[in-house]
Amino acid sequence: MTQTSMQIGKNGLTEGIISWLKNAFKTHELVKVSVLKSGGHEKEKVKEMADKMVSELGRNFTYRIVGFTINVRKWRKDKR
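Structure (tokenized):
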């Protein structure tokens, strides 16, 4: 399993981050996204970011939140 990581800061979830994620999943199965204090250290805000990320990426993606880190996974088979 290959993974990479990135951080979300004061600008929040931008189109640049979404495009970076799409590009990262071409070679990785798991991406860890850390939300910094300046990015909003509220559980509800982190969940909203994760929901938006997965909806932008597509059907083959799921996430899990651990603290203020969002683990986004790409599944090989289509999830139904």
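The longest helix spans residues 43-57. The chain is about 30% helix and 30% strand.
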